[in-house]
Structures are given as structure tokens and as C-alpha cells.
Sushi domain-containing protein 2
Amino acid sequence: MAVFAEHGFICCIFIFVSFQCVTTDSPLYPYTLTQRAIIPTEGSYHLISSPIPVVYEERSFSSFVISTNGLVAFTTDTSKAEFNNVDWSKDDVSPFLDVPFIAPYYHDGERIGVHREYKGSVEYEQLGPTNPYNRTLRDLGKYCSSQVVGASYFAPTWGLVITWRNVTSRNVLTCTASSCASNTFQLVLITDGTDSFAIFNYEKMDMFPCEYCQAGFNGGNKIGWTDIISRKTNLQNLKNRQSSDIVGRYVFKISPGRVVRAGCSTDSYSDQLSIYPTFAGMFGGKMIDVSGPCFEKNQPYRCRFGQGTDESNATYISPIRVRCMVPRLMVRDNITVSLIGNGKTYYTVIFIVFPGRLSRGEHVTTVSSKDNITWYDRDPSQLTLTWKPELLSNNSNDRVEINLIGYKEDNEMGSYKLLTSLGSNIPASAGTYTLDPRQHQCSGSDCQYEIGLLEVRLMDNAFPMKYMYLSSEVIPIAWYVRTSMLTQYGTTWPTDMCVKWYNQDKQDMSWLDYLLNCPCSLTQAVSDFGRWQPDGSCNLQNAKNPNNCFYHTTAVHCVRAVQPVHGAGNQCCYSSTGLLIYAEDTFQGSTPDKGHDWGAAPYGKKFYVPSLSHWLEDVVTFYYCCLWTGYNSCDYYMDQRPTKNCAGYNPPIPASVYGQGHVMTFSGVSPRRMYGPGDYVLFRSGNTEIQGRFNRNPYPTEKTDSHTVLDIVTLVGIAVQDKGTSDRVEIQLRGPDYDRSTQHLNVRVNGQNIAFNEKSLFWQDYRGVAIVNTDDRNEQSNFTVLLSNGIGFQIAETANTLQMDLMVPRAFNNVLGLFGTLSGHMLLPNGTAINMMYLRASDEYNKFQLAWAVQENGSLFRTLLPANHSLLGPVNVEPAHLNTDTPIFCKQNQECIYDYRHTGSEAIARSSIQAAERYAALHNNLQPVRSCGILDVPRSRKTNYDYTLGTTTTITSCRVGQLQGTATYTCVETSNETQAWSPAVDAVCHATTSATTPILTSTAYNWMFTTQQTTTTMSTATSTINITGCVDLHFPEHWETIGPNIQHIKILPSPNHALVYCQPGYNAFLASQHTYSDHFQITCRDGSWKSHSVCQKIDAVIVG
């Protein structure tokens, strides 16, 4: 269809997804016969309404003002569309001017009809939904989809075309009508009510830009400004540049929380990229679309991920975009993506998701239940994997190969290796594959690998849909190394590998000293959310999952320390009784991790790689010692991974904000109430500061009389930063102009809007801070913020108000702010104490609250909301009641009653009493628990496992050896702050030559035993047999090559063998016999003495 412009300078043909211009004079779209113009009686503005809302930076607008100042303002107030001498890119924009608008050319435009000789005009035309077959709208939608990465099929139902033709600024009318420099440019808005796009077209840009002339998008409401072109580029050059397939045209998707620009940008000063998707799993394989510069078909491009050498070649799609595959990585969180080509490098960031948090559907599946774990077995007869074909290909002819990828850590670094192909030329559409593991056995150095990944990869030149390859989660590969292990060690190879690891790992146990002590109870562990977060594989929220608590079957909930220490982390598990489960009491107990499961920065090196280091150091070793030996060698593991005693645990102190400005301080007594709007310091300690924004209720309450409601304030936002250590985080309540169907809160990091709309993105780490979407309802209404210093807070929307619960470790000093000190005192910023008890409400506001008002140069919010500002209205510290009712549901809670009387809202009042009850529960849960810690008698059976003050515990018997010493102990108070076991613990489970082998049953604390009698004949005789190649053990100075704590060594008549006898009080574990003994055998082989045992104190070995 050809459309001819009335001015005769353009002819465009709409073909499929773009407007193909047959003449290139102008990028402007032509009008039909329905265009209108601002008339002289309107002067500078025209108010227009749309039947379909335009969604702009996640807010919906149905009314807006067209202004001669080169902008469209999303407001009904024409005064908000005035030109102001404001640099909108600055952070100091007044919140009273900060209206959302789109400006193809923001300037002080001349009014229509003021001067007879002025020929400029502002024309507009609506492209309405009256004709469902509107070809123009359909083609515009297809065109925009083709220009912006991540834009799926878009079918707009309403549009608006505005053209500023031959317009000038007011300060240029000293010229004559024929000589005035003028501009002609155009804005096209199209929407379907959910997604919206904007197109800027520039035909003529002759005016010299003024100081405050700008082109771009203002989000309004402190969202910020986005330039359409680098500020180093003169705005007169807009007609010569592009961000689309046509010179002078710029295309943007404007509905998300940030403006997304089209590709093929010729802005020589810009090195920014747009990508989609914006996240990928750490194990790679995902395809991302990349746009930025104009791409050339025969020019090679490559994508680099992070600061290292992880790269993939780019595939050319069009001048607008290329595609890159995310390679297999060893990092998580935000990393740089660099596009390299044509002699220049462009940048953006991509979020790399921790493997355990990636959507399950994006993994190759290897486990279906606890009863079907063949991939994790030591000798399976067959193995089956499954995958989702639609993630790889929609072509029934495409084939895949199945690969085994190994991982190991050498020379302080991690590395991947393709070990073997498990299958090839398999239809991608099959979605499943079964193999015989005995046909796939390792050889050579590949037999040194202990863990790996499965990879399903497209073959040949197949075009991937979303993934080039899919990966499994980490798996042990005993089935792959089985033949090698049997040859090297025999049928007891798991035990031999366990002992080998044990002897290496015990060389340095100092890392345990730096870990946090476990909380003593489940309620403490759940409440101390700033330092502990639920373990994704064992938690109460996942109770219905059949694989929940796979490695801790007696637990109902485990938590992990949020912050790693030198790469290590702690894990604490709790039983259904709420008690901490000690590894000494059960093999299902709490075990710390030498490699934190979530990894640790800087990643990529030994102990620090997410998931993989943890598997090498803490998981595959559990298989060796416990799961693959029927728990018969599990003592070795628990000896190296003892539970961090809860006796040293010190709980944090809570504070809270909720309802209509109620502030519960660290003292835990009656809350204070905020009186006026503005930004205030809630908490300050050292470089850490938390600010709260209070304002009038943005939503109407249940009463129609809203005048009195405007006299009180509620929390509407929180900002936090540990200055110098962390990024700056803002979380704010979404106002009524936002779509709240799937998001109630806005989250910004360093001023940039962050999306948490997919499960894989629910946990995001930034510099010094983590942000977690803890809302299971897919409403983004509940977030947890975790600082690296242990401070954490939860913020949630309820009844259109915000609630905040803060946790601060007791170790913090010099705490100030509206929450007071940790000891409950209230101080002014200069440290002067103030007695709140005798202050009138007006004095509390003027002398205390305003003293903590945030100043301009100290705001953590993008734009300051100044307290006590005249434009915020008067502050009434004693507002009148709407009613005098005392609802029964308030249960005499004064905050609930106050909120009901002043808002008339039952929902707000109910949320306030619920928040008050939650705070009370947190305060009670986090009182210090007095515990004597573990009753330290290894391998013993006990009557109970509660070690708190006043508890009496009796040791009934031993799993290994015979009980010697006192059997019954009580945890008694030794001072106001200390406690200890009484009497002093002297019990031991003494192992003799009659040893027992523990076999774990399915019951949490029940053990079943078999007894094996070992008869030993002691002898001090020596032999004169000569053992060629091995050190002569007749000389005691050579014994240290065997191990410590040796009393005597006897050379046996049998060639190449000797017996090692331990010193009194020391024993060795005989893996082959599953027993303890005071002696063990060694063998001379390959020039050295070989042994898998060592003399050790029996009471030092901890059972888990």
C-alpha cells in the first residue's frame, strides 16, 4: 500500500515489518486526512485522551498534553508541560517539577498564533482502534518488533503521530519569517495497553540548541532521564544519526521499567549495548540477542563475558542485531558483556544466575525423586536423562549429542573439560535418552575427575531457539570412573577415596574458626534473616517436594550463612522439634561447607566457584564417606565437618516501621509515630545508613472524606547504602498510576530500575548487598535486603502501605537514627541524649524528627523529598479522628486503633496489628538462648538432644566402644551470663579391640549395630627382612613418613608388609573391616609405604 504525503516530500511503502522509503528525503511518517493541529486559541498546548492507555516506564496514562515545547507530558495539568531551565539528567531535579514526559526536542517553543509571520505548526493524528484491520498500526507494530531486541510480536491497537513542523524557539524571532532557523521532527506513540513504543523522526534540525535543550525521556517521580543520543553529539545532528534501520529515526520500547533503544545506532560516542534476555545460567548455552551499532554481514564479531577469556562468536542476523551464546562460566551475579568487532568494543551487563536458582525447566533432568537417583549412584545399570526440546529447536530434523563435561580445581583455579560423548545424532525432539554407563568408562587422566555436568548440544548448523545446549546440575561421576577405581582400590574404593580425602582435608581446619555460630533454634534461624537465609534444597517452604532435605533427611529446615568467609560458609539444620541438629548426634546433622554453595567473589578460583567448589569439597566427599559406604565410613566426614556450636550464637536486635508512620525502636517498647512527610535517617552506624521516606497515603482509604487522611503519613520508600562498600538500593511503593497486577514495589540499584519478574532473578547480588524477592505470589510485594556486614531488612506492601523489619547484629557500635541505639536510648545527630517521655508531639517533631531529616547532600534516594517543605503542606501533629470506634479485631492494640480511627480503613488497621504482632514475635524469638552447647561425647546415644539451660541429658550407650565415665549431665547456670555442664564432662566411648560398626537406619536418631571381634597378638619382636625401595622402619626416625602417634612397628614375615601399633589412647579406622583397632597394616609398593589409616584419638572423631 502506498501512502503519499500531502507535502510531497516522501513516499513510503509498508511492506511486512518495516516502512521501506522509495525516496530518502525524510524519515517522517505521512498523515491521512484526519490530522489536526494546535490552533492559535490553544496557544502552546493541546490536551488529548486515548481510549487505550500508553504504558510508559511501567505506568499507564490515558491523558497527556502535547506541547509546542517539543514534548508530550503525561499529565492533565498543562502547566507541567512548560519549558524549564532544568538539566533533566541531573539528580537534583525538584520533585515538584518531575513530571513524566517524552521530548523529541525539549526547547522553549514559540506559541502558535502569537506572531502573524510565524509559520510553525504542531500537527497530530490518532491512529485509533475503530478499524481492527488498520494496516498502518499493524505495520508500525511489526516494524518496532523488528528494531528492538526482546520485542516479541506486537499488535498495537492505538497510536498517535505528532509532528512539530518548522517550529522555532521564542528567542530566535528577531529573524524574519523567511530566515528563521527552524526544526521539523516527529513523535509516534503506539500501544496495545500493555506494551508501548516510541519513534522519533528528524527531518530538519537547523536551530542552534540552547543550554537546556535536550532530547529524550523523563521518567518522572524520581525515575530519571534517558538521552536518545550522547550529549557529546550536537542535537542538530539528530537528523544525520540513527537508532534504527533509517537515518534520522530512533525507535524505543518505553513500557518496561527502563527505556530500551533499537539497534543500528550511529552515535559515535556511545558504546552501549542492548541484550535480550538479560540473564543466563552459569553453565551457559543460552542464546542472547545483541544490538548496538549497525552490523555488517561479512564483519566478524565476538562476545566476551566477564573480564577473562570466556568468549563466543556472534552470528549475524540483521544490521540491527547479532546473536551470541553464553559460554560455560565459573561466576555469578552481574558481569560485563563486551561485543568486539570492527575495531571497537561495546558494553553492557548480564546477570549470571547461580545454578541452584535457575528455573528447573532450563536444566537437563537427572533426578525425579529420592528413590530414583541412578545418576548419583556408584554402579547404576542404566542412566536416563530428559530435556525440553522446545528450548533447543522447533525443527524436527535437528539432532543433538549428549556430552559429559568434567570439572576440577588445579593450581588454585577451576577448569572444565569435555570428557566423553555419551550419545550422538539423537533427535532433539526426543527429549529423552537412555545409556549404559558401562559402555562409557574413563581412561588416563580423565579418571581423576570426580564431578561433572551433562550437556545436550545441538549438532551441525542447527539454528537454536533459546539454547545452543542445555546442562544438568552438578552430578558425581562414580559411574564413569568405576572401572578405574575398582582396578586401583578394589571394591572398597569409596572408603579408600574417603580416607584419602580425610588425610588431606585435616591438614588445615582453621577455616572453621571464622564461621558464624549456628542459631540455637529454628525460630532464631528463621528470624535472623540478615545473616541466615533458607537452604534452597531443604526448607519449610519446599516441604511438599519429594527431594526436600535430600542430604539432611532428619531435618525440616536448613539455613546457610549469607556471607562466605574465605570461600567457606556455614549450614545449620533443624528438626521438627525446632532444635539444632548436631553432626555429632546424627549423620544427618548440620555440616559447615569449606566451599560455600553459593560461591564467593572473586569466583573462578579454588573453593570460590559457585556450586562446583562446594561439590568438590563438601558433597562428593559425603558420597565417598557416607552414601556410597552405607554410612560405614561417615565418621571420617563428620570429623571434618563438625557442627558450629550454638553456644556462641548472639542474636540480632529488631526494629520496625508499619501502618501510619509507627516506628518501633530497638528498645522494644511502645512505638513512636512520624508526623510529617519527607526523608529521614532511620539508622546510621559508621558508613551504613538506612533512610525512610514518609508521605501522605498515595491511595484512597475506605472512607470518602480524605481531608483528615492527608494529615498523617505512612512509609512509602526505603533507601540503604554501606558507603564505600555497597551499591545504593531504593525500594518504593508503587503509586496508583502503575500497573500493580504483578508488581507492587519498585527496586532500584544506583538509580537503575531492577526487574525481579522471573524465578531465576528472585535473588540478585550487587556490590556489598543482596536483594531477594521473597514474594511467592508473583506480586513483587515483599523483598529482603542483605548487607555484607550482617544487617538485613524485610520490606513488604500490605493494604497499600509499607512495613519494614530491620535486623542489626549486636556487635554494631555508635548506632544512631530514629530507631535509637541498640540499648534503647534516643540521641540527636550530635550524640546528645533526648528524653522522649516528656516531649509534646510538636516538640518531638521539631526537635527530634526534623533533626534526623535528610539533607540535600546526604540523600540516598535519587531525588530528595525535603522534610518540612512548604510545598508538602502543613504538618498537623494531632490530626482529628474520622471516628472514635474501637474495633474488636484490634485487640486493644493502640496502633491498630489509631490507624482505624484516622483512615477508616479496616485493611490498614488489620495490617498494623499484624505488623505489631510480628515485631513482638521477632523480639521474643531473638532473645539470647542460654545453651551449654553440644554434650561432647562422640559416638554416644543420648536421651535427648536439647542442650539449653536446665536440661538434663543422659548418655545411654555408645555406638562405638564402651561408655566410661559419668552418664548423666545437667546444663546449669554458672553466672548471670554463663552456663556449663554439671558435672564436668568426663564420659568417653572407649574403643577397644572389640569395635562396632554403625549402620544408620531411616529413623532420625536410632542406630543399629553389628559387632565384629578382632583378635590382636602384640609383639615387640622385629624382623630382619629387607624391604627393597622403602624406608627402613627399624629406625623410629622414619616412622613420621607413616603418620603420627605411633608406638611400635612390626615388620611381618609376609613380603612387603608391616603392622603399625598406635600409642595408648589412639586408634585407627580399618576401612576394609569397618572397625577401629589399635593397629593397622601397611604395604611397601612402588618404593614407598602405602596406608589408608592413621593413629588418632578416638574421642576426637565426631559422628554425624
Q: What stands out?
A: The longest strand covers residues 413-427. Confidence is low (pLDDT under 50) at residues 1-24, 993-1027, 1099-1104.
